[in-house]
Write a structure and sequence with these properties.
Elements lengths: L3 E2 L13 H11 L4 E5 L2 E5 L4 H16 L7 E5 L3 E2 L7 E2 L3 E5 L17 E7 L4 H14 L4 E6 L4 E9 L2 E8 L4 E3 L9 E3 H8 L7
Parallel strand pairs: 8-9
Antiparallel strand pairs: 1-3, 2-3, 4-7, 5-6, 7-8, 9-10, 10-11, 12-13
Helix pairs in contact: 2-4
């Protein structure tokens, strides 16, 4: 699975579509694909492989078990986050912990104000460069307090905190055998077992 930038179409005799109009069209044409605008580039990611989906489901269970899907917070998949680093930029994190009143803070394109996000999480696929570079800068600029990356390619878990204009001031890398404690600012005490998370997210060879 990989993400690719998309050319900007323009029919003869017509004004070119805006990026948001192009995003809307692609969402209609490619159901199940993730469409984002990152750094002014339209990006389309195919549906998850089963290992990605399995790992993400296991992670959601951890956050729900910690009590983050009730009271003041909710645990959501595929919620749009409006980015302040461009006129039409938005991201769709794999998983988010948000304030429970997030529905009252929708900005544009059904995306929420970044102020309601307590944490975003990405499980890498073929688009790992986006998650490890472009989204680090984007989520930092949006002042999302915690960014967690399950890096399947390099077998690591990244926890980024203290957002800055172009990224995060604190970037901790955890390897198999370690436990990663997340900031309690997300709304609960959560410690991630790196080995288990990577095992749940690992691609397996198909049976023959």
């Amino acid at each position: 699975m990989s993400a690719a930038a998309v050319e900007h179409p323009c029919a003869p005799g017509h004004e070119p579509l805006t990026l948001l109009e192009q995003a809307d069209r692609l969402m209609e044409q490619l159901p199940g694909y993730r469409v984002e605008i990152l750094g002014g580039d339209l990006t389309v990611t195919p549906p998850s492989d089963i290992a990605h989906a399995w790992g993400l489901s296991s992670l959601r269970d951890i956050f729900v078990a910690a009590g983050l899907n009730r009271g003041e917070t909710r645990v959501l998949e595929g919620l749009g986050l409006w980015l302040p680093d461009g006129p039409a930029n938005f991201a769709v994190p794999d998983l988010s912990v948000v304030d429970s009143n997030a529905r009252e803070h929708i900005l544009e394109h059904e995306c929420c104000d970044p102020a309601v996000f307590r944490m975003v999480l990405e499980v890498t696929s073929g688009n790992y460069a986006n998650d490890l570079r472009i989204k680090v800068a984007a989520y930092g600029a949006a002042k999302v307090p915690v960014y967690v990356i399950v890096d399947r390619k390099h077998e690591r878990l990244h926890v980024l905190t203290e957002p800055m204009e172009d990224g995060y001031d604190v970037h901790r890398i955890h390897v198999p055998g370690e436990k990663a404690a997340l900031p309690e600012s997300i709304g609960a005490e959560v410690t991630l077992d790196v080995t288990q998370i990577l095992d749940d997210s690992r691609r397996l060879s198909p049976r023959r």
